[in-house]
Amino acid sequence: MISADIEKQLNEQLRMEAESSQYYLAMASWAEGKGYSGTAEFLYMHSEEERAHMMKILRYINERGGTSIVPELSKPATEFDSLQAIFDDLLKHEELITNSINELVFRCLELRDYTTHNFLQWYVAEQIEEEALARTILDKLNLIGNDKGGLYLFDRDVESIKVQSAANKPV
Ligand code: FEO
Predict the structure, then answer these.
(1) What is the spatial distance between Cα 148 and Cα 8, in angstroms, rounded to a whole number?
(2) Nearest atom, ligand 1, residue 97 CA
(3) Is any atom of ligand 1 closer than 6 Å to the C-beta of 113?
């Protein structure tokens, strides 16, 4: 059985993962509307992954005798300035998620909840990879700048950009 404290924090993390999914879905839809079909596919997939992250926490809370809360979500932006702006936001958002996971891990140790601590190690590893991937993409976009040919090639190839350890890892 999980403590009320950990249950509350896990539900908050669940909410953040759901917000991430919603946020990346909005980015994907914007990219599709602008003709960046490769970027849109990448972000649709990313949105699905965040939903899977949310589900994993939801199932864990229930499995441990807690009560998961399906959260109300805020409406994300519909307009973005550029692909750079999108991936800049995405990286900042992932850094926020990482901080939140770290706080949760710390709290688990304080409360000696080693089971949840163990469960969260998957998220710790995932965050390293997600941040690295976002940085790799952002570096490429910053090199390209406003070059239309470069952006065309980026959009064509973005789905194949991988950070070695992140390749094809199941959620
Ligand atoms: Fe599930 Fe991208 O954090």
Answers:
(1) 47
(2) 3
(3) no
